[in-house]
Write a structure and sequence with these properties.
Layout: H1 2-6, E1 42-43, H2 50-60, H3 63-71, H4 75-78, H5 93-107, E2 112-113, H6 116-122, H7 127-130, H8 135-149, H9 158-163, E3 165-173, E4 179-186, E5 189-192, H10 199-207, E6 211-213, E7 219-221, E8 226-228, E9 230-238, E10 242-248, E11 250-253, E12 258-261, E13 271-273, E14 289-299, E15 306-312, H11 323-339, H12 347-357, E16 362-364, H13 365-376, H14 380-388, H15 391-396, E17 402-404, E18 410-413, E19 459-463, E20 466-470, E21 483-492, H16 511-536, E22 537-544, E23 548-551, E24 554-557, H17 561-564, E25 565-571, H18 576-586, E26 595-602, E27 605-611, E28 629-633, E29 637-638, E30 641-642, E31 651-659, E32 671-679, H19 684-691, E33 697-701, E34 712-714, E35 734-738
Parallel strand pairs: 1-2, 5-10, 22-28, 31-35
Antiparallel strand pairs: 3-4, 3-9, 6-9, 7-8, 10-21, 11-12, 13-14, 14-15, 14-21, 15-19, 16-18, 17-18, 19-20, 22-25, 23-24, 26-27, 26-28, 29-30, 31-32, 33-34, 33-35
Helix pairs in contact: 5-6, 5-16, 12-13
Bound molecules: zinc ion.
């Protein structure tokens, strides 16, 4: 399939052979997840396409490729995807799909974009064709395919403009000084890893070291027409704006007869001066300065593995914030906030003040305690210990401000206003030229210009769907090992970004794509809102007081249950105020105060609990769950009857047994049974006087609710002050009432 892409035909610029254009995909029930806090989009792994994703993200974060080159090609040159179905329409599918994917990555609010339309435009329709190609190979395939599909448009030289460079190979005859020259083109440079410490050394070996033809190995000079001594060298002649470097990590071991991955340490600088490797060196140094902006990392062995990419966000499109930086910012803010309070109230400010006045950087923790007493007249143990704990512990708990020695005995102040980014000095770790070579080492010795801490120098790790902020220093972790840098992308330091591009993902995106993305985002928002309220909706049962009567200790509907209850579905994240508003709207004729009380159907009837309070709180926050019962009333009475609420007034249904009047033949005892509802806070004395006539006694069934069991216990006189609840009488419990003549 790659073969097809290299062929210089035009078959894949129309859809006759490959892409089918826009497809209507089945609607998924769950909309894709939105972007996370980085505000950058990842790319889905379609099964072994992580190499493609890494490369596409690199191209996306090459704003000159994305904007100036790709987005500048309009429909008049590329055609449109909608036209791709029309016969004979000249539609250039690959650049169109790439534009569309880039627009999605920049603007569509989803966690990860899909590349299936793009890979289809490559002609990769089956799973097999997408499997783990080599990313270096893919880079060339992609460029070649793009170049071919842009023939005849203003973008025909897009790839050359940005990536094309030349190397000149020269052989100088020692006798006639004739120079034989051969120029080579490149879109990327392949450099050795084996036996080389890093990029500079590899470039040094390639473009500074000379090879000599001498002794047995002489060179045939065309001018002298004989075998002569000669020197052979190579130099970079034309530097492209974007320099892509492929590391030869995969080698062949001829002894073992197998491929292996070179995992040795291979350093590369954040900034590099290419002047020493160039043919022409008379230009200003700044012309030779390059800055790293992407590192494709390969993890695994030489037969497969995983790719991800570290990318510098040149246009500051992402939201870069590391957790620890966040913590320190919060700490600093808390510190500033408390600084203004009374001077000795805040131990943080006091201790910081003492330490900053110290001449020596580090002092023993014990001494800090003494100085606190001397300078501020307060003892840690007396003033702060109770609230803040031991001094040493307190210092430990504020690592953003205090630095303790490893043994914990000494303390110093940390620099709180540390620079987020300190420039690495790798740019200067250049190797000394080898002894036998007398070429001057032209590299600048002064430190590289520091970049502003926040100007487009934030790095992200883009790992398929996942995007995470990283520190520039993390790049060093990819110098060596099973997981290590595999491709490096440098941009010419002189390339400056226009201010209007900064933080502006819409910059240079053509109008029709902006509109498409806006519409897609609106649709996404709508679907998310629908899905959201479906996931967060709760059903509430509203019981209206006008449909209830209070009798026999509880509320009972005057109509059927069904008619007294109104169901309301509401988002649990709405506030109680919203709920009240919704109820008011439902009950247009409601007058006066409206109180919403939690209600619960009990055996005795509906009982009311706490009044819902705090209109600014969310329904979730006040604990309203799906299916909750709510009573809507004036908060005082129902149908003229005062209603007691709360767990302390829960009605209890008791089964009241009395000996049957006709107790035939004395064979066993027969009972008559009746239900009695009383409040659980009713005292036994009250219950007794309500149920038993004068002289009668009340007994409880010691074996629970089973009336056939005969463990009747008499309530004692002192029990009469106890309540129904405290003596354990619950719904369904039986009490036996004996009249005086039954005893
Ligand atoms: Zn010669």
């Amino acid at each position: 399939m790659f073969g097809d892409l290299f062929e210089e035909d035009f078959s894949f610029i129309s859809n006759n052979h490959y892409g089918k254009g826009k497809k209507s995909k089945p609607r998924e029930s769950e909309p894709p997840a939105p972007r996370d806090f980085t505000n950058l989009s990842g790319i889905k792994n379609q099964g072994g396409t992580c190499y493609l994703n890494s490369l596409l993200q690199t191209l996306l974060f090459t704003p000159e490729f994305r904007g100036e080159a790709l987005f500048s090609l309009g429909p008049e040159e590329l055609g449109t995807l909608d036209d791709s179905r029309k016969p004979d329409a000249k539609v250039r599918i690959i650049p169109l799909q790439l534009q569309r994917l880039f627009a999605q990555l920049l603007l569509l609010d989803q966690q990860a974009a899909s590349t299936s339309d793009l890979t289809e435009s490559f002609g990769w329709s089956s799973h097999e064709e997408m499997r783990q190609h080599d990313v270096q190979e893919l880079n060339r395939i992609l460029f070649s395919a793009l170049e071919t599909s842009l023939v005849g448009t203003s973008g025909h030289d897009l790839i050359n403009r940005l990536y094309h460079g030349t190397v000149v190979n020269q052989i100088v005859c020692k006798e006639c000084k004739n120079v034989s020259e051969r120029q080579e083109d490149f879109l990327d440079l392949t450099v050795a890893v084996k036996g080389v410490a890093g990029l500079e050394e590899a470039l040094w070996n390639m473009y500074v070291e000379e090879e000599y033809f001498e002794n047995d190995n002489l060179y045939r000079c065309g001018a002298c027409d004989k075998l002569v001594e000669a020197s052979k060298s190579a130099k970079l002649r034309k530097l492209p704006p974007f320099l892509t470097i492929s590391l030869l990590r995969f080698n062949f071991d001829f002894e073992k007869c197998e491929r292996y991955k070179e995992t040795s340490c291979y350093t590369f600088p954040i900034q590099i001066n290419l002047k020493p490797f160039c043919e022409q060196t008379e230009m200003d140094d700044s012309e030779y300065m390059y800055e790293l902006f992407s590192v494709i990392i390969h993890k695994g062995g030489c037969y497969g593995g995983h790719y991800h990419v570290y990318i510098r966000d040149v246009d500051e499109l992402g939201n870069w914030q590391l957790q620890e930086e966040e913590d320190s910012l919060i700490e600093e803010k808390a510190f500033r906030d408390t600084e203004n309070t009374k001077e000795t109230e805040n131990p943080l400010a006091v201790l910081k003040g003492i330490l900053s006045e110290e001449e020596v950087k580090q002092i023993p923790v014990d001494q800090l305690g003494q100085k606190l007493l001397e300078k501020k007249g307060v003892s840690w143990n007396k003033k702060y210990r109770k609230q803040y704990g031991a001094l040493r512990k307190y210092l430990q708990n504020h690592p953003q401000i205090f630095q303790l020695s490893p043994d914990g005995n000494k303390v110093s102040l940390k620099e709180t206003h540390k620079l987020l980014f300190k420039l690495d000095s790798h740019g200067q770790n250049l190797l000394t030229p080898s002894q036998k070579n007398d070429v001057q080492w032209n590299c600048e010795k002064k430190p590289p210009r520091p970049r502003a801490a926040s100007a487009g120098c934030h790095w992200f790790d883009l790992n398929d769907s996942k995007v995470q902020p990283i520190k520039e220093k993390d790049i060093e972790k990819q110098f060596q090992g099973k997981e290590s840098a595999y491709m490096l992308f440098y941009r010419k330091a002189q390339l400056k970004r226009p201010p209007e591009a900064r933080g502006n993902p819409r910059y240079q995106i053509p109008e029709h794509l902006l509109n498409e993305m806006n519409a897609a985002n609106t649709e996404l928002q709508k679907k998310r809102a629908e899905c959201d309220s479906a996931n967060n909706g709760i059903d509430l049962h509203l019981h209206l007081s006008s449909c209830y009567k209070f009798h026999n200790g509880a509320l009972h509907p005057s109509l059927s249950w069904k008619e007294s209850v109104v169901d309301l579905t509401i988002d649990r994240r709405k506030t109680l105020g919203d709920l009240r508003q919704a109820v008011f709207q439902m009950l247009e004729s409601w007058e006066g105060d409206m109180v919403l009380s939690m209600a619960k159907p009990l055996p005795a009837g509906l009982h009311l609990y706490q009044v819902l309070d705090g209109d600014e709180l969310t329904l979730d926050g006040i604990g309203l769950a799906d299916g909750a019962d709510i009573f809507v009333w004036n908060g005082k009475e129902v149908g003229g009857t005062k209603v007691l609420t709360g767990p302390e007034h829960e009605p209890v249904v008791l089964s009241v047994l009395r000996l049957a009047e006709h107790n035939e033949g004395g064979k066993g005892q027969h009972f008559s049974e009746a239900q009695h509802v009383c409040s659980c806070s009713t005292s036994l004395g009250q219950l007794h006087s309500a149920l038993a006539p004068a002289g009668g006694i009340i007994l409880k069934n010691g074996s629970g609710a089973d009336p056939e069991a005969k463990n009747w216990e008499v309530f004692r006189e002192e029990d009469m002050k106890e309540t129904v609840r405290s003596v354990g009488l619950r719904d369904g419990c039986s009490v036996l009432i004996l009249d005086s003549h039954d005893q």
